[in-house]
Design brief:
The structure is a single chain. Strands 7, 8, 9, 10, 11, 12, 13 and 14 form an eight-stranded antiparallel β-sheet that branches. The chain contains one helix and 14 strands. The longest helix is centred in the N-terminal third of the chain and has 21 residues.
């Protein structure tokens, strides 16, 4: 009787095993792929005239020699921070732009590149048109957190009597500045003990002669 039961069960087990192997595998369709979001490329457009008018050139990468026949009067920034240099291969005086600037003062620009880490960026400026000491306030848009600022002279040499940085918490710090700045020159870094949110910088400056016109530019990093 035991042998008979075994002979009856074995074919049944074989049939079950064969049936299990023979069934097709169930496959489910893969979920649709989601497109990877693309970050828009950083870009700056420089214009011949003020207020974003006249002939223009758009730049998205290093341009070592633009060969421009005109000076640059304004720039529109669509991402990133940019260095505008007066000579090819990023030589000569360089101006850092990180936001739209409707009046760059007809600046000579022959090379442009994205600013490197730690590069100074333009925070604003004030005209210096009198030979007597005049106090001007350069207001900083966006209250950026900065470790240092510096002052640069444009168009002509300027005399400096003092400067003071104001922070968004109502406090201030006096800045040690040289007695004079040559045209195109900047002070050394005027550092803060820690990163500070700047609201404005007050500068007392004068021209070197009655007919001289100059400008003070504030930069930060």
């Amino acid at each position: 009787m035991r042998a008979g039961r075994l002979s009856f069960l074995v074919p049944s087990l074989l049939l079950v095993s064969v049936g299990a192997v023979a069934q097709p595998a169930v496959t489910r369709p893969a979920p649709p792929l989601r497109p990877t979001p693309v970050k828009p490329a950083d870009e700056i457009t420089i214009y011949r005239d003020r207020n974003f008018s006249g002939p223009a050139v758009s730049i998205r990468q290093d341009e070592a020699n633009l060969g421009l026949a005109w000076t640059v009067g304004s720039a529109r920034v669509r991402g990133g921070t940019w260095e505008l240099c007066e000579r090819p291969r990023y030589q000569g005086a360089c101006h850092t732009v990180w936001r739209d600037s409707s009046n760059l003062g007809q600046r000579r620009v022959q090379s442009v590149r994205p600013a490197r880490s730690g590069t100074w960026r333009d925070l604003g400026g004030a005209d210096v048109n009198r030979v007597v000491w005049t106090r001007s306030t350069i207001r900083v848009r966006g209250t950026p957190g900065l470790w240092a600022v510096r002052l640069c002279a444009e168009r002509n040499r300027v005399r400096l009597q003092g400067a003071r940085a104001y922070f968004t918490n109502g406090r201030f710090q006096n800045l040690q500045v040289p007695a004079q700045l040559a045209s195109g020159a900047c002070t050394g870094p005027l550092a803060f003990p820690t990163s500070r949110n700047i609201s404005s910088v007050e500068v007392t400056a004068a021209t070197v002669a009655v007919v001289t016109r100059a400008r003070i530019r504030l930069e930060g990093r």
